[in-house]
Protein: Pseudouridine synthase
Organism: Thalassomonas viridans
Amino acid sequence: MRLDKYICKSTELTRNEAKKLLKTGMVTVNDEVVKNGAAQISETCRVAIEGQPLIKRGARYIMMFKPLDTICSNVDEVHPSVLHFLDVDKAFDLHIAGRLDVDTTGLVLITDDGKWSHQITSPRKACEKRYRVWLDEPLESSVAEAFARGVQLKGESSLTQPAQLQVIDDKEVLLTITEGKYHQVKRMFAAVGNHVVGLHREKIGNITLDEELEPGQWRYLTEQEVDSVR
């Protein structure tokens, strides 16, 4: 890891502030002054500022109940980013593992551990995501079987992977998928002649949205929840 990046992760300093600090000569690596922010350090290196050892902050793992009309992005656009709801240091250093559309609510997982989030977002991992779906038209009885086989999405050359459909009533269902194609749930129902009017993600892998959370609220994942993704 670059030395300036290590300093940023271990303190509240920005990258520019870390570079200025390095120029002062107050940073040592293994008791030697280092002024080059691009210098590579390993986990065994001893980094200190004015003799005080730095301890790298551990990775952060968060679940949030994403509200309506928010975006899963590090950049605010027309709608606010879900990261604005986090009262933590350097919230915008975090990223969302499995984004939701602006009009979709529910579980989002937020972290700064790229390897961990890859277990969720990589198509090869086939991580299950469960959605509660509200439909415009009554569900036809043939849809569950069609989803189990895979359906042809508009603009796609291959069928979707098998999906599980649980019927709550004729206009409300639970859908579990292992892919993350663009607007996939909406496009799957469009492929069978229906229209999604409400969409809420309840579960990713073995992590279920905490029933105690209200829209916009969040909590850190438990160790068991974090390990369930590895």
